[in-house]
Amino acid sequence: MYQLPFEWLSVILITCLAVISPGPDFAMVSKIAISKGRRSGILCALGIGAGVTLHLTYTLLGFGILLSSQGWLVQSIKLIGAGYLIWLGLQSFWPDIQARIRPSKTDTNEPTQVENGRALGSEHPPFMTGFICNALNPKTMLFIVALYSQVVSPDTGMATELGYGAFIAAAHVIWFALIASLFTGEHFKQHLARFKRVIERCCGGVMILFGIKMLA
After folding, report:
1. Distance CA 22, CA 20 (A)
2. Can you tell me the distance from the alpha carbon of 126 to that of 101, in angstroms, rounded to the nearest whole number?
3. Higher-confidence position of 56 and 70
4. pLDDT tens digits for range 145-188
5. What residue ranges are annotated as transmembrane (predicted)?
6. What is the Cα–Cα distance from 93 to 17, expressed in whole angstroms?
7. Which of 65, 94, 100, 174 is most buried, most CB within 10 Å of its CB?
């Protein structure tokens, strides 16, 4: 009876701290929102929430501890996730790379892929980008498994556990949707419009660094 409010408070506090801490999801949402607009940023946030829901689903079904105990599986997810982050980060630098590879086209009237905005992987749907990035993040998997195994009591009912899961997924969506809205607000855009490409490159560089950190 008296454990439940404390458990709820613990879940809320730990989740909020985990969500607002800088990570690949933050860099990715920022990059997509700045480069593609608010709608794409919010779709990316929804994709992150879907990825969190995937981790919650297998954890609530009892597979979370089993999966997290398989070192080879965690390492495989880490390698794939790191590669995906690096690939996403390189998208920010692809127009520059392409311009260096084919500089002659910049002097003609023929539109290039850079001018058309067809950078490497830029047509990837924002929702799927968010989903894949979060689903391949071993930190999210380990966070949710640890939360349900260390904080949530074995006596907690399934309805309450589902409530925790709904809060965790909603917290991710709301936070990153707010980030997307902030970075696409009129005040923000007016002051940083001139630095849009620089910010995109910075976000891409951060994603590459996170991918390298995962590999290390």
Report:
1. 6
2. 27
3. 56
4. 999 988 888 888 999 999 999 999 999 999 999 999 998 877 77
5. 6-29, 41-66, 72-90, 127-150, 162-186
6. 31
7. 94
- Between 118 and 164, the more confident residue is 164
Cα 70 to its chain centre, rounded Å, is: 24
Give the amino acid at 127: F
Q: Which amino acid is at 156?
A: T
103 token code pair = 């500089």
Nearest residue to 211 (alpha-carbon basis) of 141, 143, 138: 138
What's the CA gap between 190 and 178, in Å, rounded? 18
Global pTM reads 0.79
Residue given tokens 């409010």 in the structure block: 5
How many CB atoms are located within 10 Å of the residue 185 CB? 12
199: tokens are 């910010």
